[in-house]
Request: fold
Amino acid sequence: MSIVVNERDIVIPGEALAEGLDFLPGDNTYRENEKIYSKVLGLVSIAGRVLKITPLSGPYIFKPGDKIIGEVIDILMSGWRIKTGTAYTAMLSMQDASSRFIRKDEDLSRILAVGDYVVVKVTKVTSQNLIDVTMKEPGLHKVNGGRIIKINSQKVPRVIGKKGSMISLIKAHTNCDITVGQNGLIWLRGTPEGEQLAAEAIKIIEQKSHQEGLTEKMEQFLVSRTGKKIENYMPEESSE
Amino acid sequence: MIINKETITQLAAVQKRLDGRKLHDYRQPLLIETDISWTAEGSARVQIGETVVMAGVKLSLEKPYNDTPDEGGIMINVELLPLSSPDYEPGPPSIKAVELARVVDRGIREAQAIDLKKLCITPGEKAWFVTIDIMSINDAGNLFDAAGLASLAALKSAHFPVVDEKTGAIDYKQKTEKSLPLRKEPLPVTIYKINNSLLVDPTREEEETAQARLTVASDAKGSISAMQKGGEEPLSIEEVSSIIDLAIEKSAFLRQILTKSLQ
Amino acid sequence: MVYKQRLDGRKDDELRPMEAKAGVIPNADGSASFKIGKTWAIAAVYGPRELYPRFLQDPQKGVLRCHYGMMPFSGSGERIRPGNSRRAQEIAMVMTKSLEPVVDLSSFPNAVVDVFVDLPQTDAGTRCAAISAASIALADAGIPMKDMICSVAVGKVDTKIVADLTYKEEQIHEFNPESHDATVADIPVAMIHNTKELTLLQLDGDITKEGLLQALELAKGATEKIYQLQKKALKEKFLMGEKQL
Reply:
């Protein structure tokens, strides 16, 4: 009748987490024969009586409201097909592409061409993973210039940090615009050196995402590379 | 990614690269390890940055070709394993794999790097044939240089297997002290042209961005044994001249690392 | 009994020296290297990704697809011709079947998870090494799995029940002339770690039912050793020292 793991332990699929009925299986776990097991490689998280596992890797799972970055791969009669870096493409329909009215006979490739990258928001996810996205809200747009890097989507929360602390830290030290897609695609735009430092910093976070005190370590890294410490890097009102 | 290709093109004009390297710098680590496979007569693993290839040499006894009865032979094969990149699929070799194999093959064959006459045992009847199989393990760009380097390293590390004197059968489980008769050490270096700048050791994105490439295989003396132009756009004779200088310089650089690694 | 001491001096239940690593192929979504004796398997997982041609898609769940390949220089004899041999096709199929019972792809309709295993050198036990490597790679890729699959060969050499046969033991008549009458059985197995249920079971050779059941009992301990190594490899990927920071 006990728990056999500690908070933030790394566990592998099939590893026992607890025995008996005192605990409840949460995300990425399952119960069998009065034992709770992990279903993925990840970190143990104990919230009261609920045991869950935060995955250390794995595919992006679409959620309505998520901001993602994708590539236009096809133009259809009434919209665009967007590649999302997953097993599923998303649909951006004409009426969701722009706040202005798009006429039916307009050449859609003049609005978005094949190969263009876009920052869009997931609006609908069906059981078969048919995905609808929109580009009609503030902060959603076609991507111009800079570079796109890819990380594992499970590491995105660490790259953003608590209340956006990590991403603000990187933005402040690299002078880059950074847009993080929940699907693991990240758009960086600044000077070549700034973009490169930001890319390096994000790759380090991806590798060390399971470690504690990562923001402090990242600040040391960035200060050592730029030679200057920035005291108040958090924006007045964090938007991420 | 088109965005990255555009940025790569712009940066090349001011002698910069997406990953911050100088145009003529190889990625690190640049590692060469030999004897990685006990079943091969010679083998090597080459890592350039995140790119990894393995090469293995197998030797067999065959009847020489009719037009060269007193020579052994050489064959090079490349497998772009689907394990090494999301872009590769199972199935017969793609044109990319065929080109890669043939360019590495010509670099070694045309330099007469292996003394094929010394591979002959009985003219017209029996000679050693050398097969090099090159496997991509992680393709992060510049398979050409990695494949050339791995082939040469595998050849240099190879030892003949024991042959039963009575039956003539090869006992692959036992190796002799005898190495392959190598006369030269040609190494291919591929130079890429992006926005009128020349660069070495491209990433996958740089390869896709490049307008033209030229592979130049050269030996320690700077003799050229094979070339292959690729890419969409033409090269001027002046550009070819600069490319050859750069390729010979980098070939010497790689050969030095190879020599050090084999010590 | 003629075969008293194993050719390489191991105890009956002892496996050859092993080494496993997770995350060895940066391009892949998950990957692993698994060495047992002189057999070496490298596994890479790509997916879930789009599956083509479309008729292969399953609208109810993702499809698991394994691929197995011995590198041309990885055989202990002549060069192996590249390409998908009948043997490679069969092994790929049994690999898929051995991993499917623990892999949960219900959240990925119409998609595919590809597992590629290639071997740079071999000395018996290649399908088992391939499955053990694939299991690490799938976990590394973050694919939901009920459990790990641990695979090793057990069997009989003469009257001895042993784990992890080598090529020389499989061909004992050739390497130990005194054993010319001895019979050999090679039994590659894969087990679900927690339940000890078998997901791979093949047999080549000559063995009684009693001998087989003894060998399968021995497999429980043998696969536990594989499991401990798989677990260590996956955890080490994240616990390694701080390099860049």
